[in-house]
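Write out the 3D structure for:
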Amino acid sequence: MASAQPGVHALKLQPPAVSYTLRTGSNFMKWDEDLSTVTPVTLRVDQHGFYLHWTDQNKDTELLDVTLIKDVRTGRSTKTAKEAKLRELLDAGNLVGRLENRMLTVVTASDLVNISQLIFIASQEDEAKVWSEDLFALCSNLLSLNLNREQSLLKAIVRLFSSDRKRVENALESCRLPYGRVRKGFWEE
């Protein structure tokens, strides 16, 4: 009893580390099961690990807060198409590996009842596995779920500027502030 030391079993939490693969992004196909459409997208995570965002061919960007991600799956536990026609469409080009192993299912929920799934299809099995492991490690990190004040402010700024650039420029223009490419001021010369 006298030899017990306080804090010996304390765990030091590590800040979330975003891997190079997640930061640079990868090409995926996004399957929308409601519309039965497949869209090519580029999937990325910002350098701080706050948001998962994807950009389609029209340069439209969608964001997902990493704290809303509850699970990231690949392999047998992913949601697959039941219809043969749709399954053939998803497996277009017969890319490397089985379709189930190339699928990346991101399960999101704001509460216990409203659960939704985003389904992405990678070109290779290894790519889907790396994304699954790294993204799950990022969304289950305790420090990313419990942010301090400075991190919360940084997260709000990252969301503002990583969302649609045109919206930000329109807001600046409506406030009669400089927007777009701004010339250097006299103080910067």
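The first strand starts at residue 26 and ends at 32.
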